[in-house]
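Budget justification aside, the reviewers requested a transparent look at the raw inputs and outputs of the sequence design task funded under Objective 1. We therefore reproduce one unedited record. The lines immediately below are the structure tokens for a 471-residue chain.
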């Protein structure tokens, strides 16, 4: 496009024009001026710009391509670039002398035809109208309407949130259409998406995955300007739901405080519920049990739930360890224990881990080990109080005592003739007549009174059994 303006339109010497002017009357003088203006303005005076509208990125360099023409025979005195128009009487300022431009403006033209100029590191303040001006020995020319420069930055336009599996389109926008042909580069979390270089300013993500979430920015190839990053939030249902035991780190022993944690990958963050078996027991990411007991043993799992769905974790088993309890001694068979019989005592207990260490005591003396204690060919010497001790690594517990009373053969024959063998008060014996009851009751009442006073005598067990011989 060629645009021109002559500030001094009458030439001082025109080879054919002077004679014509002198021969025309004053009445036709205005017409003569018009003819002279036409001749001057059509005599190749002008300025041509490659673009009259330029859109450039902030901090880039802008080259304004320009040529100018003037009639042969004229001499160029000065060329320069100016900005904006001025009012009548004002002068155009040479930008090369303006402190804001002098270090950034580079004149690439000459004083013949080329008036190209380059402006580097442009900012929004450089969004102005620019004009080329040249001065000859006779005239001053300025190229109107000049070049309008708009300086812009880049912005990413994107929805804030997208659901996993949907498609989303991101747009790299500027406030004006960039003059230079642009190749766009996209970044996620400051890392270039190398497969995303396109002359199209849009980025299409099809079937969005959770890994696509991040901060997106765009730039132009061979430009150092990058847009501000925009966060893309991808929402999805819970997955990878799991339960972990935070504390304790090792075995769970009765009385410990236990903390379970539920974790899952989900967006938005989920609500969490806790279940023991199929029973709801709590909510929240953390589930705590203070002073745990064996009743808390079982399978625990958590449920993670958000607006897109829910999922359960695999179960975690709490195995609560505790020392032996409910330790007891039982005897095989029933009835009268006769001299020569074989007797088996069994020790049972409830413990975790199961007790494997059992000890047997007659009175205060250890007489054996193992869950079962056997006495073959029992005699009256075996009469007495027996108990067992059950032990695991968490502790030990004694059973209550069981008293064995072994009957001599003559008393057994007598009991069989007059009565039946029974067990009374934890003592196994045979019963016959009233005199036997009287003797045993006296002995047992005496034994009970001694225990109540704290003066229990282990020999009393033998005395109780020996009561048969006194009858």
């Amino acid at each position: 496009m060629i645009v021109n303006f002559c500030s001094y339109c009458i030439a001082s010497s025109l080879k054919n024009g002077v004679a014509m002017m002198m021969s025309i009357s004053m009445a036709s003088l205005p017409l003569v001026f018009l003819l002279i203006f036409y001749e001057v303005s059509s005599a190749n005076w002008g300025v041509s710009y490659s673009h009259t509208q330029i859109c450039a990125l902030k901090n880039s360099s802008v080259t304004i391509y320009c040529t100018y023409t003037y009639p042969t025979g004229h001499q160029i005195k000065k060329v320069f670039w100016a900005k904006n128009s001025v009012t009548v009487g004002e002068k155009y300022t040479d930008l090369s002398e303006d402190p804001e431009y002098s270090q950034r403006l580079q004149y690439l033209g000459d004083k013949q035809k080329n008036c190209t100029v380059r402006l580097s590191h442009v900012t929004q303040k450089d969004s102005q109208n620019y004009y080329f001006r040249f001065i000859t020995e006779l005239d001053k020319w300025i190229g109107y309407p000049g070049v309008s420069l708009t300086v812009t930055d880049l912005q990413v336009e994107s929805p804030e949130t997208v659901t996993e599996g949907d498609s989303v389109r991101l747009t790299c926008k500027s406030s004006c259409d960039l003059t230079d042909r642009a190749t766009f580069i996209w970044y996620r979390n400051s890392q270039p998406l190398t497969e995303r270089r396109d002359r199209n300013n849009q980025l299409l993500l099809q079937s969005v995955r959770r890994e696509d979430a991040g901060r997106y920015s765009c730039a132009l190839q061979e430009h150092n300007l990058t847009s501000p990053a925009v966060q893309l939030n991808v929402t999805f249902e819970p997955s990878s739901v799991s339960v972990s035991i935070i504390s304790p780190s090792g075995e769970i022993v009765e009385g410990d405080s236990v903390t379970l944690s539920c974790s899952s990958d989900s967006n938005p963050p989920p609500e969490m519920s806790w279940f023991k078996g199929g029973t709801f027991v709590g909510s929240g990411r953390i589930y705590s049990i203070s002073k745990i007991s064996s009743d808390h043993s079982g399978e625990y799992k958590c449920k993670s739930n958000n607006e897109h769905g829910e999922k359960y974790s695999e179960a975690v088993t709490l195995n609560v360890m505790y020392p032996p309890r409910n330790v007891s001694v039982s005897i095989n068979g029933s009835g009268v224990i006769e001299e020569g019989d074989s007797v088996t005592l069994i020790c049972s207990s409830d413990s975790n881990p199961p007790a494997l260490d059992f000890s047997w005591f007659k009175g205060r003396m250890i007489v054996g080990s193992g869950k079962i204690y056997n006495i073959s060919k029992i005699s009256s010497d075996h009469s007495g109080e027996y108990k067992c001790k059950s032990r695991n690594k968490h502790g030990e517990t004694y059973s209550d005592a069981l008293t064995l009373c072994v009957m001599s053969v003559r008393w057994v024959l007598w009991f069989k003739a007059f009565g039946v063998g029974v067990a009374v008060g934890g003592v196994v014996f045979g019963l016959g007549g009233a005199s036997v009851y009287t003797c045993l009751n006296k002995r047992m009442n005496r034994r009970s009174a001694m225990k109540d006073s704290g003066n229990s005598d282990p020999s009393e067990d033998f005395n109780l059994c020996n009561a048969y011989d006194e009858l």
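The chain is about 15% helix and 45% strand. Confidence is low (pLDDT under 50) at residues 1-42, 420-449, 458-471. Computational costs for records of this kind are itemized in the attached budget.
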